[in-house]
Every structure is written in structure tokens, then in C-alpha cells.
């Protein structure tokens, strides 16, 4: 509204949230609609957890190589959703918070190249997991909201974290 960025200067919207408002449409498409951007603006969602912002930044830089338009990089999470009383008893305490940001990524000839280095480690994928709510285990009204895993009761719709495994991964690999 203030004219800081003109709509025709925007080439893409990237959203890195993994707590979307909807499965469909994507977060970037919702943002595109709310901003009333032109149809040629690319919408891309990169829901990649803790590394999401860096992955989105990487994708933004790749897009800059193909266009001379700006990329809007959005990130935002809502970890503190309202749990039922039963879910709250069996949820891992949240390690993040509710926040949002937008970054404007653009070419600048006075700066040099940007370098990224990524690795993927899927072997400990269950160390940080929300086991319910998606298509692998959809939740239905009236269905139990908890399950027993290795003798512990857990909530399907909360993030379950093996803190030791996450800590060890960070110490060893990050």
C-alpha cells in the first residue's frame, strides 16, 4: 500500500511455513491472492521445518538467476495452537514460538556470488515428528487424539521430539 515495492517488480512468492492455514491452496497462493499480484508471479511453498528459511532463500537466489524481479520470501509458524486438554497432557513442550517475517530478495550487481551448502539426513527423521493430521494418518471427529509409543502416551497432533537425537544431530552434523 505504501509503494515500497511495486507489484510489477515481484517475480515470485516463496512461503516456508510448515504450519499452513490450509493444505489447498498453498500458503504462497493465499498470499498472492491477498496481495492481488499479477498472474505471472510464481508461487512456491517450501515447508522444510527448521531449514525452511534457508531452503527458501536458496530457491529465491536460483530464481534471481532466471529473472530480474524481486522474490518475496515469507516464513511464519504457529506452534502454540490450542490443544485439547487431553492433547496438552501428552505434547512435547514447544521449542519455538509464533512468529512471521518477510524478506525481499533481489539482484544487486555490486555484490558477488552467493554460495550455499546443504546436506540431508533422513535416517533420524522420526526425531522430530507430528504423527497425525496429514494423509498418512488423518484425524477424524471422535477418533482418539492420543496413542502409545514405546510405553509413552503421545498426542497425534502435536510435535513429538526426541530431544537427545536432535541435540546430537546438531552437535555432530551442523
Notes on the protein architecture:
The protein is globular, with a radius of gyration of 19 Å. Helix content is 22%, strand content 21%. It contains four helices and eight strands; from the N terminus they run βαβαβαβββββα. The protein has helices spanning 27-35, 52-64, 85-89, 163-173, and strands spanning 10-15, 42-45, 70-77, 99-105, 128-129, 146-149, 152-155, 160-161. The strands form three sheets. The chain has a four-stranded mixed β-sheet with strand order 2-1-3-4, with helices on both faces. It is of the alpha/beta class and 174 residues long.
Summarize the SSE layout with pairings.
Layout: E1 10-15, H1 27-35, E2 42-45, H2 52-64, E3 70-77, H3 85-89, E4 99-105, E5 128-129, E6 146-149, E7 152-155, E8 160-161, H4 163-173
Parallel strand pairs: 1-2, 1-3
Antiparallel strand pairs: 3-4, 5-8, 6-7
Amino acid at each position: 500500500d505504501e509503494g515500497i515495492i511495486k507489484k510489477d517488480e515481484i517475480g515470485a512468492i516463496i512461503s516456508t511455513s510448515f504450519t499452513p492455514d490450509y493444505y489447498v491452496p498453498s500458503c504462497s497462493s493465499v498470499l498472492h491472492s491477498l496481495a492481488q499480484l499479477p498472474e505471472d508471479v510464481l508461487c512456491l511453498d517450501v515447508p522444510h521445518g527448521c531449514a525452511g528459511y534457508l531452503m527458501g532463500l536458496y530457491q529465491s537466489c536460483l530464481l534471481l538467476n532466471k529473472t530480474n524481479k524481486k522474490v518475496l520470501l515469507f516464513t511464519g509458524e504457529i506452534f502454540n495452537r490450542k490443544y485439547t486438554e487431553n492433547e496438552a497432557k501428552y505434547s512435547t513442550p514447544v521449542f519455538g514460538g509464533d512468529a512471521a517475517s518477510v524478506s525481499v530478495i533481489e539482484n544487486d550487481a555490486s555484490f558477488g556470488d552467493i554460495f550455499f551448502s546443504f546436506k540431508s539426513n533422513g535416517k533420524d527423521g522420526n526425531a522430530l515428528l507430528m504423527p497425525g493430521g496429514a494423509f498418512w494418518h488423518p484425524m477424524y471427529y471422535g477418533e482418539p487424539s492420543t496413542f502409545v509409543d514405546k510405553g509413552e502416551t503421545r498426542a497425534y497432533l502435536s510435535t513429538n521430539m526426541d530431544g537427545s537425537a536432535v541435540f546430537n544431530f546438531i552437535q555432530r552434523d551442523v
